Structures are given as structure tokens and as C-alpha cells.
């Protein structure tokens, strides 16, 4: 998504050119390209598909909407399995229109995980629940902290449900370091993503993530915490930013690789 | 601030007309009008000044900036005392330019409270530290949860430092209910403010608060929690919203009073 202006073949080429060994994919471009073809493309390029983003949006009250969401998540699991990734990132969903019941919405997520977890496990996929920044609690994700995400995940086997940690969403939280350790100790730290925090936030706040090193987040410190918790997987960079998407994709890719080396490692 | 288009005399008149017994004031209009004159105006109208907003911005690293901030906060304490309110709301401040050290910034707030607390107590004023929504952690307030605010406040006597609870900032936090109880039990729940959460957030996210009842927050439930924690003071409504400020002040005042009755009480 960081370089969404690239086609999937361009993305694979850029990864190979710049020595990036893996890539997190989003469902929409994968489905447009064709799931088997995308799987073949990444495999032929020697790339690991780190995660598929994303399933979720499991908070609907209406039975029809809820059934449709579960169906869609089962499809997402199938797509993840076909791509050869073991991790499907889930963004839980916000409050249904008119509802003020955060607790109820969180319980519906648990109900959905109970249905989806075994389905995913049978296909070798784990569900990686992602807490989103509290500014998204109403309209996108009622799971706002890593502690909440783990409280939900730990109701289920670690072979079924874990968490995604994204620095953009948790950097402000003084409890997050201990929660990363908790996730690691439980074998539930399934994905680790980086983005920096810059202000002012844009209208709608979705597409204002900062290039690595430009913002307030101590990326090295968070990387060290993930490592100390036993995270040995690849690290993703996930930026949503209109200004970045307006730049030539290859140049942005190269800049992101340079920033990753400069701001994430000592 | 909700009706900042009104002059202070208009504000006092509206309070009397609509039966609102008290008002939270901001420093800028009070200083423009003159502190003794504003105090007299509110007293003559029979109004309680619930709080003065705001002191704070105590995270500077440069010694000169830090000394200036402490001076300004002592002036804010003096103004609060002159207005006859016992509560000065503090917004702690964000990260200094270029800093990524949230912990250090939080410790500088504690250092400042150690200097300001006794000064305030001698003048009959308590400092009410306000956690702001995590979306303000970088640029406005490194204290992002009520638990953090209480962790800081409890290092000092309850006669010096307490907290402000604003639904807009804490509504997403599943730990906030227990923290309101903690604040009440410790005699530190000094101010209780209401605003609703609406989306999309505007550019800069500061002036997008929702009119009571229009958003995602269960205001009745939070009011009940504050009452259960022993809050017997007046409740403030604090909306920053460009659209509301563009409306005629008296009409907005009347609408806010109507919404307060409809959405806050059973």
C-alpha cells in the first residue's frame, strides 16, 4: 500500500532490485490481478508474502451484513492461503451507524473470531487482529490498544488468532511496550509494521502517515521491543499518504528503502 | 469556548436567561476583558466559575522556554484565584520539535507540577491535569489516558493536583471507567466536561467536536460514572467546532442547553 501507484509486477521488480525479501499485499490489487497469478508472480520473484491485508469489519448488527462479512473473511483466508502467507491482518470495524455500544461491538468481534479461527487454522492461516489508533474507534476499529487486541486474541488458540503491531497506532501508549512483550511471549506477534507520525493530520485522518524518520515515533526503540519479544519475521512499512502516492513509485520505493536503513536500525 | 462568538457580558446574560448556574472560562477572553472586571461580571450574575482553561504546555526542553512556561502558569493560577474558581485546567504540552522522547516529556511535566503545585495550593487553586486524545500526543499533550494523568497527579497531594475528565478524549478507552472511579476515590476528579465524537475529523483535528447527541459517545453512561465516582460539581460542555462558531451565539447556547437536557440525563 505504501507504493500503491506500482502495479504488482512493478512491485515485485522493485523488491528484487532493492533487495527487499518480502512484501505485504492488499486484497484489492491482488484480486484485480488474479489471486493465482499474483501468487505465482511473487513466488517466481523469490518473495515472501508477509501478510494479506485485510479482513475484518466484523461489528455489523444486521444479520445479513454480519453473514456477508463472515463470508468475505472466509474468502480472505482462502486468498491468504493461496498467496502462501500464514497471516491475514484483521481490522475489526467501527460502531454500526447510530450505535454507541463499544463493548457490544467488541464482543461481536469475539463471536466472529470464534467462527473464523478454526476455518483459518485448517488452511494454515492465522488471524492477526490489529489495534488501530483511537482516532479510528468510531468509524473503523473499536479495538484501540494492543492490550485490548490481546484480550480478544487470548480467548482463542495462538494457532488461530494473534495481533498486528503497527507503530503508527500504538506509539503514544505507555502500556504498549509491555503488551508487545506479552504478544511475543504468547506466540501472537504475527506482524510488525512501521509508519511515522506527522502533523497536522489531514481531513479524515486516514492518509496522513509520515515517511520513516520524519515524525515523532522512535522507530528504533519499537523495533528493538519487537525483537526483544522474539519477533524474527520481516518488518513491513505501511504508509497511507496522498503526497507519497503522487510521487513516481520507483523513486518512493527507493526512498523508503533508504529511510528503513537509516531510521530503523542502529 | 463552546460559544466563543459571545462576549463575556453576553455569555453571562445567556447563562442567567437559560438557567445555567456556572461557566468555564478561557484565559484569552478573560484577559482581554480584564480579570477583575470578568470576576465582577460573573459574580454579579450569580454565576460559579467552574474552571479556568488553561495552563500547561510544560514540556519545553530549552531553559528559557521552560521558565517562561512556569511564569505563565503562575499567572494562570493568579487569574483563577481572582476569578474565584478553585480549578485550573492544564494541558500538558506535546513533544518539543525534533524530540521523540514521550517519557522524558512526561517527566518534565512532573517536575513542573512539583513547582506549581505548592504555588497553586497557597492561592486555593488546584491543577487539573487533562488527558487529551492520543491523536494530540505529538503536538499538544503527551498525557493521553486518564490512567497516565492519575499516575502523574498522584505523585502530589490531592490539594494540589487532580484531573480533568473530558468525554471527547477518553470515550474510546476501556480502562477509563475504572480510572474515573480511581480519580473520585482519591478526591482528584476536579472537572468533568462533555463533547461528542463525530467523523470525519477536520484537517488538524482540533475543531471537529460534535454537538451533544450527534456522535458516538454514550454521554449518559459517562455522566453516571462521574456521579458514581462522587462528582457533584457542575458539568461543562466544551465544543470546538468551526461550524458551531459560525452560528448566532444565543441560538447555539439555547441548542446546547436543550441537548444537555436531552442527551446527558435520563
TrEMBL record, chains A, B:
It comes from the Bacteria. Keywords: Isomerase. One of its GO terms (molecular function) is isomerase activity. InterPro entries: IolE/XylAMocC-like, Xyl_isomerase-like_sf, Xyl_isomerase-like_TIM-brl. Residues 14-254 form the Xylose isomerase-like TIM barrel domain. Gene3D superfamilies: Divalent-metal-dependent TIM barrel enzymes (3.20.20.150). Pfam families: AP_endonuc_2. The keyword Isomerase applies. This is Sugar phosphate isomerase. It comes from Streptomyces mangrovisoli.
Amino acid at each position: 500500500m505504501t507504493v500503491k501507484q506500482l502495479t504488482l509486477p512493478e512491485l515485485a521488480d522493485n523488491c528484487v532490485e532493492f533487495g527487499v525479501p518480502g512484501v505485504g499485499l492488499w486484497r484489492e490489487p491482488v484480486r484485480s490481478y488474479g489471486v493465482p497469478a499474483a501468487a505465482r508472480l511473487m513466488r517466481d520473484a523469490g518473495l515472501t508474502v508477509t501478510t494479506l491485508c485485510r479482513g475484518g469489519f466484523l461489528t455489523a448488527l444486521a444479520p445479513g451484513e454480519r453473514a456477508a462479512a463472515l463470508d468475505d473473511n472466509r474468502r480472505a483466508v482462502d486468498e491468504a492461503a493461496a498467496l502462501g502467507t500464514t497471516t491475514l491482518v484483521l481490522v475489526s470495524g467501527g460502531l454500526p451507524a447510530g450505535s454507541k455500544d463499544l463493548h457490544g461491538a467488541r464482543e461481536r468481534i469475539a463471536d466472529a473470531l470464534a467462527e473464523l479461527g478454526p476455518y483459518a487454522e485448517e488452511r494454515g492461516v492465522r488471524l492477526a487482529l490489529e489495534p488501530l489508533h483511537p482516532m479510528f474507534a468510531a468509524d473503523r476499529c473499536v479495538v484501540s490498544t494492543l492490550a485490548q487486541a490481546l484480550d480478544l486474541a487470548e480467548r482463542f488458540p495462538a494457532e488461530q488468532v494473534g495481533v498486528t503491531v503497527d507503530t503508527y497506532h500504538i506509539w503514544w501508549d505507555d502500556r504498549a511496550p509491555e503488551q508487545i512483550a506479552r504478544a511475543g511471549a504468547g506466540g501472537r506477534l504475527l506482524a510488525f509494521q512501521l509508519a511515522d507520525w506527522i502533523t497536522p493530520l489531514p481531513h479524515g485522518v486516514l492518509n496522513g502517515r509520515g515517511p520513516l524518520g520524519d515524525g515523532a515515533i522512535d522507530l528504533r526503540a519499537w523495533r528493538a521491543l519487537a525483537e526483544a519479544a522474539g519477533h524474527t519475521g520481516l518488518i513491513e512499512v505501511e504508509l497511507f499518504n496522498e503526497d507519497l502516492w503522487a510521487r513516481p513509485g520507483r523513486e518512493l520505493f527507493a526512498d523508503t528503502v533508504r529511510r528503513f536503513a537509516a531510521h530503523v536500525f542502529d
